[in-house]
Amino acid sequence: MGPIVSGVREDASQSERDGRSGGDVGVEAVGMGEVRRYIGVAERRARLALRQRLAGDARAAGPEEVAESMVALHGSDPATVFLAVGARLADPGRTVAETERALYEDRTLVRMHGMRHTVFVFPTELTPVVHSSTSLAVAAKERASLLKHMEVGGAPDAAWLKEVEESTLAALARRGQATAVELAEDEPRLRRRFLYGAGKSYEGLHTVSTRLLKVLGAEGKVVRARPLGSWTSSQYRWAVAPPHPEWDVAEAQAALLGRWLAVCGPATEADLKWWTGWRVSDVRRALAAIGARAVGLDEGTGYVVAGDEEPVVGPGESWAALLPGLDPTAMGWQQRDWYLPAELRPSLFDYSGNIGPTVWWNGRVVGGWAQRADGEVVWRLLDAKGVGREGEVAIASEVERLRGWLGGARVTPRFRSPLERELAGS
Q: Which stretches are tagged as biased composition: Basic and acidic residues (predicted)?
């Protein structure tokens, strides 16, 4: 694997230029007389560099611009949101202050459940689309699951839960913002516990408050507000969600898929099904609704939005980036060979498939990074091919950039990869 790197070392490898041009443009024959354009790895990396706000000239001015470009920022780990924004800002010095402003003061960004039962941060104007296209289906499953587990675990029935829910929402409206503990002072039934997974290795006691607030969040009735601690804290207050219009499900799915494909296209049907968490029939219906165009990829057929078939020329300069665990770029596609070599995955993913912090060079993952207990940011190349001295200098510059805006903050990923644990020394 090579040594931990805090600075740079000499490397005689030739610098890789993939991702700096659209140099692999071509066409692919499909059936009788039909021709579709082939988009190769170099152009896919070029699109990633520009549209994911990672190349130097493509970086954004503020967190709203980042979220708008990315469609969704992973929010399961609170720190990921801030680290993902900071990696994409032209001036990251006010990353924390500006992201907190957007989330908790101006409410231009909203943290909510979305695709694959996962918490994301979305631009506020997109929340009705996500709610109708995805969250409602998630919410129905969550509520059914809660009622089933309550019944098996010896808790009261659905009518009882409905009373608790209405009382909780009324208490939250009176308080404005509150933690689950504070809400339980007003509605003591939230403290009710029930046995989950009796006889299983994961047997334990669940509290009504934890499960019910999750359901209400997925249903769009409550939202996460400012945390109790710093920006790395996962102990959130809750607030009543503002009203928003309801969309037709099919129209909302078409709108969401079109937004994502404009940023992340080309993508395969498998990529789209994985990212959305929808049925394949929903994906195909949405592709047809937006008039998506088929293109050729190394993996087979991919899709772009109409008008996006033309070649994309990449950034004029090489670029490096340090992305956090669960970053939306690293987790953006199910089929990742074009930017993440398979041999690197055991070091960079945890046992559940969550990616840890990654080091990027010209559109591909080349290593990982971590922060030690003393605050030092360290990194290691796992694939030095084509990086050379230019790449290592650029990566070291990104390390200093990250260290600068973190200040005294200490960040430990919620989902830890083997490499991150090793580099962090824990």
A: 8-21
Q: Would you state the pLDDT for residue 15?
A: 36
The whole-number pLDDT of residue 13 equals 35
The string of DSSP codes covering 171-186 is HHHHHSSB-HHHHHHH
Contacts for 392-398 with beta carbons within 8 Å, 24 or more apart? 392/5, 392/8, 392/9, 392/11, 393/8, 394/318, 394/319, 394/320, 394/361, 395/5, 395/8, 395/320, 395/322, 395/359, 395/361, 395/367, 396/5, 396/6, 396/7, 396/8, 397/320, 398/320, 398/321, 398/322
* Radius of gyration over every alpha carbon of the chain, rounded to an integer in angstroms: 23
Dump the DSSP string for 76-112: SSHHHHHHHHHTTBSSGGGHHHHHHIIIIIS--EEEE
Distances (CA, A) of 136 to 66, 112, 149, 161, 299: 26, 12, 20, 19, 32
Q: Residue 326 in contact with residue 415, Cβ under 8 Å?
A: yes
Residue with tokens 């009788």: 32
- The distance of Cα 198 from the centroid of its chain, to the nearest Å, equals 33
Please tell me the predicted confidence (pLDDT) of residue 292. Answer: 97
pTM of the predicted structure, to 2 decimals: 0.89
Distances (CA, A) of 255 to 81, 126, 133: 23, 9, 9
Q: Quick one: 153 exposed, middle or buried, by C-beta within 10 A (0-12, 13-18, 19+)?
A: middle
Domains of the chain: 32-39+247-304 (1.10.10), 47-105+314-424 (no CATH), 134-240 (no CATH)
In the structure encoding, which two tokens stand for residue 171, read together?
Answer: 């208490």
